[in-house]
Structure formats: structure tokens, C-alpha cells
Design goal:
10 strands; 173 residues; 2 domains; globular; Ribosomal Protein L15, Chain: K, domain 2; alpha/beta; 35% helix
């Protein structure tokens, strides 16, 4: 995955012609519509254009100012936008006008949308997410040689932050 200096990640490893666009917000970062593309601006940096025909979804976290027209352009192009809190939890979703994703490589989006539309879909998704998070934590603790019952959440967060900084560099505050 390629990470540029102003917090954009363009996932070149995803198969197919369309790629996810990750926006890690910084003060002053703005997203605007520019015809059939998104223009991403940040103070003292050159604006970047991302044609929506090449974007499968947008994941936006942190301080990103979205222009209403940019959101509508994404919706009309059937490009979903996921807004995340700083801790990575989902804040909101924006889905387009189409009932299905236009990209055959994006089966996850289609399946997730169908599941969330079912009765109790969001409740079941939250249960699944909690259990998947628990399983991931337990797998990590097994690698560390620690049992879940012995691990204090504050210690776990501290250890994960140190590992993230060691391997991925400093992230958003």
C-alpha cells in the first residue's frame, strides 16, 4: 500500500481497476468535487485529484472537511464513503444511489450492505464485530504468551501503540 506524505493511501495491492482511497485527516484537509473526481486539498501542499471511476470506496478518518457536493458526487457515482472515529470505529456510512456496487471485485461491500439491510442487521453486525475484535485480541495475546483474563485493557492499548509506532510509524493523535 502506498502512503503519501499528506495522509492519503492509495491501495495498489487491491485487484481490479478500482482501488480504495484512505484519507487520514489533518487540520485544513478538504475534499471537494471536481467534475467526476475528488479534489483533496491540504494547506501548503498541491491538490490531488482522484477520479471516481478509479475509486471503489473512500475511508475517511480524522479531521477531513467534506464539501456537500463531493459527498453527492460520491453517492451518484456509487462510491461508498465510510467515516471513522480516531479509534477506528465506524462513525457513519454514505451509500450511493445504486443498490449494488458497480465493481464485481467489491463483494464485501455488496454483502455488508445486504446484511445491514436485514432486520436486526446492525445489531448482528455489532455482535459480529465485537466477537471478531475479541478473537483478534486473543490471537495477539497468544503470540505474546499472555491469556486474555490476565491482560489489562490499558496495558494492551499501550503495547499495541508501541508496536504500531515501531512498525508503522506515528499515526494520527
Amino acid at each position: 500500500m502506498m502512503l503519501d506524505e499528506i495522509g492519503h493511501r492509495w491501495d495498489n495491492e487491491t485487484p481490479g481497476p478500482r482501488k480504495p482511497l484512505y484519507l487520514r485527516g489533518h487540520p485544513g484537509m478538504q475534499v471537494e468535487a471536481d467534475g467526476p473526481a475528488l479534489r483533496v486539498r491540504q494547506p501548503a501542499k498541491a491538490a490531488l485529484l482522484f477520479p471516481l471511476e478509479r475509486v471503489v470506496r473512500v475511508i475517511s478518518s480524522g479531521a477531513v472537511q467534506w464539501d456537500c457536493e463531493a459527498l453527492l458526487t460520491c453517492a451518484e457515482a456509487a462510491v461508498p464513503v465510510v467515516f471513522l472515529h480516531r479509534d477506528g470505529s465506524v462513525r457513519a456510512y454514505l451509500f450511493g444511489k445504486n443498490t449494488r456496487s458497480r465493481d464485481p471485485h467489491d463483494l464485501l461491500y455488496s454483502r455488508l450492505r445486504a446484511r445491514l439491510a436485514r432486520p436486526n442487521g446492525m445489531k448482528r453486525y455489532d455482535q459480529w464485530r465485537r466477537m471478531a475484535t475479541q478473537a483478534a485480541i486473543e490471537a495477539l495475546l497468544r503470540q505474546w504468551g499472555t491469556r486474555y483474563a490476565e491482560c489489562h485493557p490499558a496495558r494492551l492499548r499501550q503495547e499495541l501503540a508501541l508496536l504500531r509506532q515501531r512498525y508503522a510509524g506515528p499515526g494520527p493523535a
